[in-house]
């Protein structure tokens, strides 16, 4: 998640774990580059997946995440938007991309 790009109030263990994943991906990118293996990751921001978001049609919106992020983001992303970023990273169009951490968060990690 984008918690691997900055500090946050999610707790020290959570933030450290996310930074650890980021470091692991960067290490793998260097270690396996010569074998033609790329390692990249996305850093998803708030995403409507049903976890922390009430996605029922009659719901009053994504209350849990909205309460957490306040006014720092324009909208909450979809799982399809996260998947599109992953598909691009795995495609030939990203063949020279290695060791990248791609925020998919509508700019939330830039705030």
Automatic annotation (TrEMBL):
This protein's UniProt keywords: Oxidoreductase
Presence of keyword DNA-binding: no
Top-level taxonomic group: Bacteria
UniProt KW Oxidoreductase keyword: yes
GO terms assigned for molecular function: oxidoreductase activity
InterPro entries: NAD(P)-bd_dom_sf, Sc_DH/Rdtase_CS, SDR_fam
Pfam families on file: adh_short_C2
Family affiliation: Belongs to the short-chain dehydrogenases/reductases (SDR) family.
Protein's name in the database: SDR family oxidoreductase
Native source species: Streptomyces sp. SID7499
């Amino acid at each position: 998640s984008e918690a691997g790009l900055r500090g946050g109030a999610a707790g020290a263990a959570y933030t450290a774990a996310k930074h650890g994943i980021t470091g692991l991906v960067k290490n793998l990118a260097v270690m396996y580059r010569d074998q033609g293996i790329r390692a990249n990751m996305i850093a998803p921001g708030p995403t409507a997946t049903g976890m922390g978001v009430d996605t029922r049609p009659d719901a009053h919106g994504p209350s849990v995440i909205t309460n957490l992020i306040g006014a720092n983001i324009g909208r909450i992303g979809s799982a399809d938007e996260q998947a599109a970023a992953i598909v691009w990273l795995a495609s030939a169009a990203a063949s020279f991309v290695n060791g990248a951490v791609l925020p998919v968060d509508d700019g939330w990690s830039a705030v």
